[in-house]
Amino acid sequence: MAYSDKVVDHYNNPRNVGSFGKDTPGVGTGLVGAPECGDVMKLQIKVNLDTGVIEDAKFKTFGCGSAIASSSLATEWLKGKTVDEAGKIKNTDIVNELKLPPVKIHCSVLAEDAIKAALADYREKNAPVDAPASSK
Amino acid sequence: MLKFPIFMDSQSTTPVDPRVVEAMIPYFTEKFGHPASRNHSFGWEAENAVDHARDQIAKIIGARDPKEVIFTSGGTESINLAVKGVAEMYREKGNHIVTTLIEQRASLDVCKRLERQGVEVTYVPVRPDGLVELDAIRQAITDKTILISIMFANNEIGTIQDMAAIGKLAKEKGIIFHADATQAVGKIPVNVEAAGIDLLSCTAHLIYGPKGVGALYVRRKAPRVRIAPQIDGGGHERGMRSGTLPVPLIVGFGRAAEICGEVMAEEGARLSKLRDRLQDMILSNVDEAYLNGHPERRLPHNLNISFAYVEGESVLMGLNKESALSSGSACTSSTLEPSYVIGALGASAELAHSSIRFSLHRFSTEEEVEHVGARTIDVVKRLREMSPLYELAKEGVDLKSIRWKAD
User: Fold this and answer.
1) Which residue is closest to B352 within chain A, CA to CA?
2) Can A64 be counted among the known catalytic residues?
3) Domain boundary among B197, B224, B259
4) Which ipTM did the prediction report?
5) Rg (alpha carbons) of chain A, rounded to whole number
6) Domain count for chain B
7) Nearest residue of B to residue A72 by CA position?
8) Residue A132: its pLDDT value, please?
C-alpha cells in the first residue's frame, strides 16, 4: 500500500512527540487502543488554566505509520484551540487531511478517541469546585 | 557500491537467475511446440524439453522416477491438487486430515473449504520454537485419517520440521503424507524417499525460476498414491492435471532446480553466515528483540525478529525507501491481522504485531546486510522513542496490568 505524502511527512517528522507529567496542572491525558490490536495512542494536552486554551500538546503512538501520522496531526490541530473547540475535531477531518485509505480509517477513529479521552481527563481533574462540571 | 532498494524478501519471491532466463528464451520463439503434439518434430522437441525438466526436478527432491513429477501453475495449485485430490479420491476410506496451525494460507484455506464439505481437519499446535511434536500428530490421528499435510519449512520463521519422523509415522499408520516444500526445495536437502513423503508441493519462483509454474510430486510406488484431478481437460500429466504445459516456464523451473542442486551447500553456508551476522547485529544492539522460530533448525536464509513496543508495519515504513522486507507474510500483509504464525508460537499478540522477516537470497551481499542491519536498529530505536508502551515499560509499569480498551 502506498502512503500519502502527508502520512510520510508526519511519519518522518512527527510533530510534538513526548510527554507531560500527568499530574501537572492543566494537563489532560488520553491513553487509548490496545497492544494486542496493534495500536496504542497516548495524547496529552496542556491547557492554560486562565484562558482555557490548549497551549501545548504531545503524543506517543505504538502503531502503523497512519496511526503515528493521525496522532501527530491531532497534536498540531489541538494547539491554540479552546477545550470546547478541540472536542469538535472529527476523525473524518483527519481522514481527509491525510488521505487515509479505508483500511486505515480506524487510525483516525483512535486519534479522535484519544482527543476525547485527553479532554475528559482534563475536565475531570480541573472541574471547577464552585460550578457544575461540564458535560463529559 | 550499494544499489537501492535492497531486496530482502526472498521468501515471498526471488529474482530469476540470468542462466535460467537464458535457458527459457528459445522456447518462446523457435522451440514453441506443444509437448502433446505427437506427430511432428515441434512437439517432440517440446516434449523432450519438458521431460528433461521433469528429470531435473525429480533429482532435487530425490524422486525415484521423473514420471512422479506433475507440473502445475505453482505452489498454491499443487497444494490444492494434493489435498483436495486426496480428500476426494479416498473419501470411502476416511474423511480426516491432520495438519498444523502454521501452514501457509493456501493449505489452511483448502482445509477450511474441505471442512465446509464435511471433511474433518485437526490443526495440530506447534511448540514455541515452531516445531510440531510427533506425539501431537500421533494423538491427532484417527482411524478415519487419510492425509497428513505438513509444511517442510515455514515461510515466516523458517523452522524445518522433522519430516523423516513424520513420514515414518505416516507409513506405520498407512496414511498419505503431503509435504508443502515450497520454501524448502532448492534451499536445503529434500529427499522424498528418505523422508517417506508421498506428495510434495514446490514452486519455481522461490528458487530463482519464473512465476507461474510449480510441481506436485506424486508417489508411484510403495504406496502408489492416487489423486482426483481438479482441472478436467485433455488428460495431460498422466490425467492428474490437464492443460497445455507452459514449456518455457517448465524449462526455466528445471534449470533453476539444477542450479540450486549445484550450489546448495555453498550458498546455504554463505547465506547462513550473512544471516547470523544480521541477527547478531540486531540482537546485540536492540533490547527486547526476540528471535522467532527455532535457532538452529531453520532455513539458512531466514531471520524473523519481533521488536517489543513497536509495530511491524511502522518499522517497514521506516525501511521501505531503501529496502524490501516483510512483516508477517506477503499473503497476509493486506490485512490488519497480526501474524498467525507468530501467534501460534505462543507469543503475545503485541509481539505478533511486531515481527519482521528478513530473507536473504543468492544475490545478497555482506554490504547489504550491514546496511539493513544498521538501518533497522535506527528505525526501531526511533520508533521506541515515540512508543507509549516503551515509555510505560521503562517506568516499570507492567503492560498487562493496564486495562486496555480493545475494540
Assistant:
1) A36
2) no
3) B259
4) 0.91
5) 15
6) 2
7) B386
8) 52
